[in-house]
Amino acid sequence: MLRFYTSGESHGEAIYGFLEGIPPNLDINEAFITKELERRRKGYGRSIRQKEEKDSFRILTGIINGKTTGSPITIEIKNKKRDSLKHMNVPRPGHADLAGAIKYGIDNIAIIAERASARETAARVALGAIAKLYLSESNILITSFVHQIGNVKLERELYPLTNQEFAKVEIDELIESTDNNSMRCPDNDVDEKMKKFVENTMQKGDSVGGSFTVIAYNIPVGLGSHVQWDQKIDASLSAALMSIQGIKGVEFGLGFAGSLKAGSEYHDSIYYDKNFYRKTNRAGGIEGGMTNGEPIIIKCAVKPPSSLQNPIDSIDLDSKQHSFAQYMRSDSCFVPAAGVVAEAMTALIISGYIN
After folding, report:
1. FRET label pair with 30: which of 68, 78, 131, 353, CA 20 to 30 Å apart?
2. Distance CA 327, CA 329 (A)
3. What would the pLDDT profile of 78-114 be if each residue is shown by its tens digit?
4. Mind listing the domains of the chain with CATH numbers?
């Protein structure tokens, strides 16, 4: 069984990741972990902190001489930015501030913000990099791209959605070109329009959301099960992706758009030529809680960040009087980074089913 969790605060000493269930003798390429952490920090609209933090990590347990031992893995990522905890008494709408303060009886909502911060996802990405290395032993590849920022949308499919299409694409080149774009959109022209949209929003002191797609290739048939609700792989993936800060929606394949179609237009016809295959993948690679052998396709909606330079209405928790939400230096858009975090979570969940 694979288990993982994180610890630490946004401006504390460090963020920690713990991963249990990876078998022994897996080669761990630390340069690959570094690259994945760098990918999380990129994207136009990120806060200046992404330049301050280099996410240097130390492997504390579970890996000796570059190989896993089979025991739990611990990774430490030091925070360069360490601030004394300031008092915050005006919650930001859309953040964990108010609900967390009420739930835990805390009068300083900065304590809630420290742990609710997306800084925590650095540990998830480090653990996800190990999971990706593990899955690469089975030739499984997981990637993502941004398909919408605000009202700027990618209207054409550039990534392969079926195994037949995947066999015809130089996927490594496509991934590299996507990662080199400011918003991680595979279409250069659309990427530039997305960047401009974020720039215009930032000039207004506002923030912007969007959506991204995660795709997992070379997935075997039968991961997950139909027999119990908690064994369905799409249920596990949904929970993991919804746990990422800012994610407000998850759909597989056509998702909600599929509900508008007739069955004959939606379902993926089955063919056989030495192996079963589909010419379409509207189900997103999952049927009945199990993988069907086609790529897993997941789309996630990301809300705009909660910290606004031009803040909106809120309430002072001390006086209970009208105030404006406190501004904390934050991202104006974190959709590109959220896609990288989603790759890590997808890798961790699939690893648990391969394991």
Report:
1. 353
2. 7
3. 998 777 778 889 999 999 999 999 999 998 999 999 9
4. 3-354 (3.60.150.10)
